[in-house]
From TrEMBL:
Signal peptide: none
HTH hxlR-type domain span: 15-113
SUPFAM superfamilies per UniProt: Winged helix' DNA-binding domain (SSF46785)
UniProt cross-references to InterPro entries, sorted A to Z: HTH_HxlR, WH-like_DNA-bd_sf, WH_DNA-bd_sf
Swiss-Prot/TrEMBL keywords: DNA-binding, Transcription, Transcription regulation
Keyword DNA-binding: yes
GO molecular function, one term: DNA binding
Protein name: Transcriptional regulator
Database matches in PROSITE patterns: HTH_HXLR (PS51118)
């Protein structure tokens, strides 16, 4: 993509797209966003549903997504405390992009070589067999 800056200092689309990509760049952000695009999740549910992510990394990625305004965090005053995460309206606007990616994967995913999972910690067998709550 070439820089698209006018001499009068207007928008540089290359830089703007870099900013957009940075919102979703991170080891786990796209996977988190995919999950939250499906429904609202509690922290523990996300942790179990995303194989290999550590509690520390999930917390860090959720905080970044929240500070960027892509997800919202709701804390319920209960014992024990319940915390839920959901996509904001701004992030929901990415829905067509996610649908296009899913459609692309359905068409071309089988032609992509399978790589061994090398991300995060190896899940133990009990974690791997448990699905999302």
């Amino acid at each position: 993509m070439e820089n698209q800056t006018n001499d009068d200092g207007q928008i540089n689309m290359h830089e703007e797209m870099r900013r957009a990509f940075s919102l979703l760049s991170g080891k786990w952000k796209l996977e988190i966003m995919w999950m939250l695009n499906q429904r609202i999740y509690r922290f523990g549910e996300l942790r179990k549903a995303i194989n290999g992510i550590t509690q520390h990394m999930l917390t860090a990625q959720l905080r970044e997504l929240e500070s960027d305004g892509l997800i919202s965090r709701t804390v319920f005053a209960e014992v024990p405390p319940r915390v839920e995460y959901e996509m904001t309206a701004k992030a929901r606007a990415l829905g067509p992009t996610m649908e296009a990616l899913a459609q692309w994967w359905n068409e071309y995913g089988k032609s992509v070589p399978v790589r061994p999972a090398s991300r995060g910690r190896k899940a133990n067998k009990t974690q791997a067999s448990e699905g999302p709550i």
